[in-house]
Structures are given as structure tokens and as C-alpha cells.
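Weekly sync, protein design subgroup
Attendees: M.S., D.O., the rotation student, P.L. (late)

Item 1: inverse folding check
M.S. brought a backbone from last month's batch and wanted to see whether the design step gives back something sensible before we order anything. D.O. pointed out we never logged the input encoding, so this time it goes straight into the notes. C-alpha cells as presented (260 positions):
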């Protein structure tokens, strides 16, 4: 069994795998970092909730965009599991080649998303992660990560719009009854939702033109189920893509030994 950890700017996702089977995903806040003792308590509570013990896990894998939390959480995992976690970086065996200008600057979440898609979807493919930012990652038919695109996330853009205007009404993003909004609220929510759906469709077309062939498209992230159903492109939704990627990368790098 393996623990997979995704440390983001607002939440920490914690997944438990038995082989390739995902047993659970739990989330805790990362806005207020805890001590290693605090994270040990949280981890033990999660394992107890699912009737599991730390002794059942052979190791762990961390993806993080918050270095200050990484060190503390790593210490907590080492205490619980008795061994250091494997930390995701471009230097590991990811199962594909990075062909961008600065591999060391590619976000760990992007690296994991690609790894999660490799064994499950046909090449070439595009992964789209609709979170704080909307990120596109392109892997060609030869397993080369060529790069992608990064846009403001749906929620990020929505908050920025409302924060810069005094008279626009606040509300959730949902699809109004008509494309042409009959009131300001419908104009905002429809514009955000359909505007992002059209942007995704248009960018996928441009990516496929540049590749010179059709590509499988896989979406994940908090806004995937909100936006993707309104796209015209055929897009698979896989909300556990990142965790699956961490599990795959862990296996790639520990098949002949355990992580140190």
C-alpha cells in the first residue's frame, strides 16, 4: 500500500492505494500550516477513519507547490511510516521525456497529471487541469512532454471580475437557461462558464493543428465537472488523475528498491 500526497496552496490531498486501486482520498486545509505533530495527528485520524494502520503502507509520494509545507509534512510521514517519502521532481523516472525549455520549472501537479494519463489513455493526449489556474499539458505520440498553456482558473477569473467592480452581483457559476443572458447575473455566470468552455474547445483545435493529428483529451480539477460538459470537444473527465500519476511515478522509482 502507498500514500500519495498532493500539497496545494489551499488544500492537501491525501490518497491511499492498494496496488493500483485507490482506496480513499481525503483533504485537509493547507492555508494554516501545522507542525509535524499536527500533521501526524491528522494522518492518523485519516487512517483510523478508513480502518487502516501506518504499518500497512510501504511508502509515500509527495507532489507539492508549497515548499514550506513539504518539509514539515515529509517529517510527519517519515515518523509515521518509518521511511522518507519520495518527493516528485523532474529528475525522477516519470515514464515520459520532458522537452520543455526549463524542466525544473514545470509544476509538479502538471508532471503528475501527465503520468496519470499515460497508462490509461491513448497517445497523443492533452490533459487539462481546471483548478486555481487552468493548465494544458501536451504529450505527443513518442511520450514527449512538449509543453502547454496556462490560463486563469474559472474561480480565479470570477473573483477577479467581482473584486474589480462595484455593481456586479455575486453568485455561483452555473449554466443559465439561455446563452444570451437576460440579467446581469446570467450574463456573468454564462460568460464565465461558456467562455471557458469555448476557450478550451478553441485551444484544443489549435493544439491538434500544431500536432498535425487528433489527440485524446482528459480533464481533471475542481471545475472540470462544471465546465467540461459544455464543451463541444470529446473530453474524458478523471478527477483522480493526479493521484494516479503519483502512484505510477512511485512505482517507476521504487521497483528496484525503496525510496530513501
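Designed sequence read out in the meeting:
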Amino acid at each position: 500500500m502507498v500514500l500519495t500526497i498532493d500539497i496545494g496552496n489551499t488544500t492537501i490531498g491525501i490518497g491511499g492505494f492498494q496496488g493500483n486501486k485507490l482506496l480513499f482520498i481525503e483533504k485537509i486545509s493547507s492555508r494554516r500550516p501545522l507542525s509535524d505533530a499536527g500533521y501526524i495527528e491528522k494522518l492518523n485520524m485519516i487512517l483510523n477513519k478508513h480502518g487502516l494502520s501506518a504499518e500497512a503502507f510501504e511508502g509515500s509520494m509527495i507532489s507539492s507547490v508549497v515548499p514550506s509545507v513539504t518539509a514539515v509534512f515529509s517529517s510527519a510521514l517519515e515518523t509515521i511510516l518509518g521511511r522518507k517519502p519520495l518527493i516528485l521532481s523532474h529528475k525522477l523516472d516519470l515514464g515520459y521525456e520532458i522537452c520543455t525549455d526549463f524542466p525544473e520549472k514545470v509544476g509538479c501537479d502538471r508532471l503528475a497529471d501527465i503520468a496519470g494519463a499515460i497508462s490509461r489513455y491513448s497517445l497523443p493526449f492533452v490533459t487539462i487541469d481546471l483548478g486555481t489556474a487552468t493548465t494544458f499539458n501536451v504529450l505527443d505520440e513518442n511520450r514527449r512532454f512538449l509543453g502547454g498553456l496556462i490560463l486563469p482558473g474559472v474561480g480565479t477569473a470570477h473573483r477577479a471580475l467581482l473584486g474589480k467592480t462595484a455593481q456586479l452581483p455575486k453568485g455561483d457559476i452555473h449554466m443559465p437557461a439561455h446563452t444570451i443572458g437576460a440579467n446581469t447575473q446570467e450574463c456573468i455566470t454564462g460568460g464565465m462558464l461558456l467562455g471557458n468552455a469555448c476557450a478550451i474547445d478553441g485551444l484544443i483545435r489549435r493544439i491538434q493543428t500544431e500536432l498535425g493529428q487528433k489527440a485524446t483529451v482528459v480533464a481533471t480539477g475542481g471545475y472540470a465537472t462544471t465546465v467540461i460538459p459544455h464543451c463541444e470537444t470529446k473530453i474524458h473527465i478523471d478527477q483522480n488523475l493526479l493521484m494516479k500519476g503519483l502512484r505510477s511515478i512511485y512505482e517507476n522509482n521504487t521497483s528496484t528498491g525503496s525510496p530513501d
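Discussion: The chain has a mean pLDDT of 91. The first strand starts at residue 2 and ends at 7.
Action: P.L. to compare against the previous round before Friday.
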